[in-house]
Design a protein that fits this description.
Alkaline Phosphatase, subunit A, four-stranded antiparallel sheet, 2 domains, alpha/beta, 14 helices, 14% strand, globular, 484 residues, 12 strands
Length: 484
């Protein structure tokens, strides 16, 4: 009697089911292959710094091609604007304060289940290639891990696809380290011209700021080039038609007013999805979606039952019909990321309501941005009295406790409408919605004294390391560990 291992049997059963599912999604009979998944994660890339989102200055031909062949979401929001909590949230389908890894560099606890576990149980080969940043407690929840430097990232992604077991469907979390700081010339040839930079209104227009943004553009372009290498390999292996591609970022650009903020520049994300036969080509989806929805969506498309722990919703219906609404609200949070913080935000189709529990502290950007050329320029101009109110907003305190922004008219979130009498109904509704969400998800402010203290000086960006800063201690230990 032929003996079949448990994993082989699971793989055979799953391939049969998923192939049938894909065939039904295509409106055709069963096919011979299940759906594979590759999620490309940029590190600190703004939602609007690519061709598909209207920036003509950044060279992103592969993102342009994916958007033309798939669906571009224009109201996709992250659960936070900090890299490791954001990634944990995507992989578990849970809010950062529910994962146990809501602050930067806190490892994801072993009891948290990533989507890779039910996928692997169903016969998938699962891989994380590139930036890990989740801690070691959940390392056993993937079959394959491999790190890479940013120059070789594309080749490392391709290598993983070549090395995968050919008899299993696959899930690959392709996590780049671009366009995270620090920057140096030479990421791409030719480099982007500082003169061509699209300057947000919250940055001063100086040569040094333009040069800083141009180097950031270079790394966005390199991220795009490496995606192109994978797309080419999928074509070679005849996998393009059976592989769902998702491109997303983990938070906003690493500049003031962006990274760590729960306003649009911090948590709105590029979100481009391609799957031939299921997702109609060239579509723009204006529905509200959350990065929390990625894990349930992947499991739904794979025909795998989702764990009860997941708090997101499957996007399958809106992927096939961009007029189909999945959620009424999206939520975001800001916890410790170099500096003490407690902020929450809720989005609907038009408005963002933000509650700030620490009005006495400025909206200091993260330490990498504080140490940037751009922030040094802003401090110089601030001392000269040359910054506009929008440009100096991250340097002043006290701040408001409540904000309301019209994200359609004011996508940079510069005009606070919270005290506008005509906005009272929207303010009251969103304030109550946020309070209900906090109750439902067991989220509360426990007092300023209970927050993790600043780990860096807000003026100089210099590190403050003491035993009182567990995040910094863990971060240093994690960096000393041998990379997978």
């Amino acid at each position: 009697m032929l003996q079949v291992s448990r994993i082989s049997l699971l793989a055979v059963l799953f391939v049969s089911y998923a192939a049938s599912y894909l065939g039904l999604a295509n409106g055709a009979g069963p096919t011979s292959r299940p759906i594979n998944f590759i999620i490309f994660v940029a590190d600190d890339m703004a939602w609007d710094d690519s061709g598909p989102y209207g920036n003509p200055s950044v060279r992103t031909p592969n993102l342009d091609r994916l958007a033309a062949q798939g669906m571009r979401f224009d109201r996709a929001y992250l659960t936070c604007s900090s890299c490791s909590p954001s990634r944990c949230s995507m992989l578990t389908g849970r809010y950062p304060h529910n994962t146990g890894a809501g602050e930067l560099h806190l490892p994801l606890p072993s009891e948290q289940q990533m989507l890779t576990t039910p996928l692997r149980d169903a016969g998938y080969w699962t891989a994380v290639v590139g930036k890990w940043h989740l801690g070691e407690a959940v390392a056993e929840q993937v079959d394959y891990r491999k790190a890479s430097n940013p120059v070789q990232m594309g080749a490392t992604w391709v290598e993983a696809i070549k090395e995968r077991p050919k008899d299993q469907p696959f899930f690959i979390w392709a996590a780049h380290t671009d366009p995270h700081r620090g920057y140096s010339p030479g990421a791409v040839d030719p480099p982007h011209s500082p003169a061509s930079v699209q300057l947000p209104p919250f940055f001063p227009d100086t040569p040094l700021v333009r040069e800083d943004l141009a180097l950031y553009y270079d790394e966005v372009c390199r991220f795009d080039q490496h995606i192109g290498m994978v797309l080419e390999e999928l074509e070679k292996q005849s996998l393009s038609d059976s592989t769902m591609i998702l491109v997303i970022s983990d938070n906003g650009r690493p500049f003031p007013h962006c990274k760590t903020m729960v306003t649009v520049p911090g948590v709105r994300t590029p979100f481009i999805v391609k799957l031939p036969g299921l997702i109609p080509a060239g579509q723009v989806n204006d529905q509200l979606v959350s990065s929390l929805d990625i894990a349930p969506t992947v499991l739904d498309l794979a025909g795998v039952q989702r764990p009860a722990s997941m708090q997101g919703a499957s996007l399958r219906k809106t992927l096939t019909d961009p007029n189909m609404s999945i959620r009424q609200y999206a939520f975001a949070e800001h916890n410790w990321h170099d500096y003490r913080a407690f902020e929450r935000a809720v989005y609907d189709q038009q408005f963002c309501y933000l509650r700030n529990w620490l009005p006495g502290t400025p909206a200091t950007p993260p330490a990498d941005a504080v140490n940037s050329v751009t922030f040094r320029e802003m401090k110089r101009l601030y001392d000269e009295g040359s910054l506009t109110p929008e440009q100096r907003a991250c340097m002043i305190a006290p701040r408001a406790e409540e904000y309301l922004f019209d994200t359609i008219k004011d996508p940079n979130c510069l005009n606070n409408l919270a005290e506008d009498p005509s906005m009272k109904a929207h303010l009251d509704r969103l304030r109550e919605t946020l309070a209900q969400w906090q109750t439902q998800t067991n989220d509360s402010f426990s007092g300023e004294d209970n927050l993790t203290p600043d780990g860096f000086d807000r003026e100089t960006g210099k590190r403050i390391i003491t035993a009182a800063h567990p995040n910094l201690v863990k971060s240093k230990k994690e960096k000393r560990q041998k990379k997978p």
